[in-house]
Amino acid sequence: MPIHFHLCRYIGFDWSSSKRSLTPEPEFPNVPTVAETIPGMSAIGFMNLAAPAATPEPILRRLAEGLREALDSPKVKQRYADLGIPIRNMTPAQTKAFIENEQKVWWPLVKEFSPQ
């Protein structure tokens, strides 16, 4: 997405995250966050690797190690930075806690605004 801003295809009016620019080299330091207008507001996208609930723990550990290794690679870090995607290299426990927290935030809104 950053390339589209640089080519003036889009005008940024806010970040939905809690920080202004999440890239290692902030490309858009003057684009405010939603939280600067709506205190406490933060809405970020995320990607995670998931496995079936019955997956044995040693396999889950190996998958997590492999993903962490890949995300720590300079080439991957640079590609994500070029795309303006922050890397939050979390452990499986941190990922689970993150998802549970997001569900607490968003499920009430989904229920409130879903058509009956």
Outline the secondary-structure elements.
Blueprint (H helix, E strand, L loop, with lengths): L1 H5 L50 H15 L2 H10 L8 H22 L3
Distance between the termini: 36 Å
Low-confidence stretches: none
Work out the count of structural domains.
Answer: 2
SSE string: HHHH
The number of distinct β-strands equals 0
Sheet of most strands:
none
Shape verdict: flat
Rg, Cα atoms, Å:
17 Å
Our estimate of the beta-strand percent is under 5%
* Percentage of residues in helical conformation: 40-55%
Please identify the structural class as seen in this structure. Answer: mainly alpha
Structure in words:
- The protein folds into two domains: 44 residues, no CATH class; 70 residues, no CATH class.
- The chain has 116 residues and is mainly alpha-helical.
- It contains four helices and no strands.
- The model has no long low-confidence stretch (mean pLDDT 78).
